[in-house]
Amino acid sequence: MALKKAKVTLSDLHGIAVTLGPGLSGSLLVGLSFAKSLSLALNIPLIEVNHMQGHILAHFIKEGTEGIKGTEGIEGAEETKGIEGTLEKRETKSHTSPEFPFLCLTVSGGHTQIIKITSHLQFELLAETEDDAVGEAFDKAAKILGLPYPGGPLIDKYAKLGNPKAYSFPMPQLKNNNYSFSGVKTSFLYFIQAQTKLNPHFISECMHDICASYQAHLIKYLLKNLIQVSNETSIKHIAIAGGVSANSELRKQLNVIGKIYKWNTYIPKFEYCTDNAAMIAITGYYKYLDNQFCGLDVTPKPRYHI
Length: 306
Ligand code: KG4
Ligand code: ZN
Known about the structure:
Nucleotidyltransferase, domain 5; 2 domains; five-stranded mixed sheet; two-stranded parallel ribbon; globular; binds 5'-O-[(R)-(carboxyoxy)(hydroxy)phosphoryl]adenosine; binds zinc ion
């Protein structure tokens, strides 16, 4: 299906990029086994990818109508130039990629990190959550409200109709610009329990205000620490990535704050925010150019750190 869409065949491929982690070992193992077989059968190198690096490098995905045809072979400078050349051609149709060094607020269902990126393959973790990820804070609150999984997109939708100042929640202040979302999530649970005792229809009657206030709180917290890290590092190229970067209010607020602090902000295309194969492929591309291949004996890394 993907090959058909890209108008290429298996013989056009130069390498197989695969997620090694972080993630659930079962899913990682299935993907890795398939990738190993394909790499062996096609006699092309295997490239292991860190899922979170993939989210960040989604900013470098180039879209275009040209395929990568005419770039046969995987050895030698000419062929490599061929791939690069094709990608350069595609650049005309893409959104602007971040300039190095840049900071990326990487927000997903399993991670909340602020990372400094100095090249396509150099990442430095500057801050992270010490417990739950912000995606979990969205999803667990949604569950408390009786919404289906994943609740993040629904909170986003209902928040558009509510008052973001209706209710307030605590904002834990940790050292090193780290985050903590477990206390926020618990305070949300206690708040809902207390309000429901007073009015059994509280959730249904105030759903929009609840979603708007909780979402605004999470975003304020995310951006507060991001501002601090930007000030400390003097880096003003600021990106967001990961599933939660699909959140419409986070996207809006990043631009609002960006104007105040004179940042150059980079927001991924909506379809490249949540998990996708293209982000793994683009990371594989940069590792391929750097000859970063792996053996067929690699095993999944469920806790793969960036
Ligand atoms: O990156 P991702 O697709 O998978 C992981 O690597 O975890 O992120 C999934 C997370 C979920 O927690 C989901 O609720 C959240 O991204 N998410 C959103 C939105 N779209 C996805 N959270 C808030 N607002 C959204 N619009
Ligand atoms: Zn993800």
